[in-house]
Amino acid sequence: MYGLWTTFTTQTGQRDHVIALLLEAAASLETHPSCLHYIISISDEPDVLHVREIWTDAAAHLASLELPVTRRLITQARPLLEHVERVLEDHPLGGKGLM
Amino acid sequence: MYGLWTTFTTQTGQRDHVIALLLEAAASLETHPSCLHYIISISDEPDVLHVREIWTDAAAHLASLELPVTRRLITQARPLLEHVERVLEDHPLGGKGLM
After folding, report:
1. B95 and chain A: CB distance < 8 Å anywhere?
2. ipTM of this predicted complex?
3. Which of A3, A5, A9, B92 is the most exposed place for a label (fewest CB within 10 A)?
């Protein structure tokens, strides 16, 4: 499996707008067999949010970036973002909550 | 919801031993209703591993540390660890893979 942890810093006051777009992205992946997790979270910083993704493999994740819905959402989100950081790429081994 | 991202640096060569203990911890939480995720992963660093936890709330997580099986596993793992870092505490909002 392939894991990705991404932290987004939004333009001031745009976090909720970006969250809505990312939740739409997650919904669009509900039936995508290679996407196991696409979870949005916030922490204490006002304009920061995190996306935790787990895919069957890196190639599946890469291919997903070409999906029309993903490309549209990236285009919509980009002007609302100040910084995007790929915090970690990892390999989930197992545990509770992995389908 | 309450999320936790912890990075463990093990003593040299002890990663697999610690992974086994953490997978045992995850198995012990399978029926724990407040634990939604307890996922172990590795990245490219040889003696480093990550645990991503999602709980219904912080109190449930705190209480779980008092469970006999958790206390036993922490006692077994402690001498195998060089460093434990709580990388992030967050609040998962939604997305794919959250039960």
Report:
1. yes
2. 0.93
3. A9
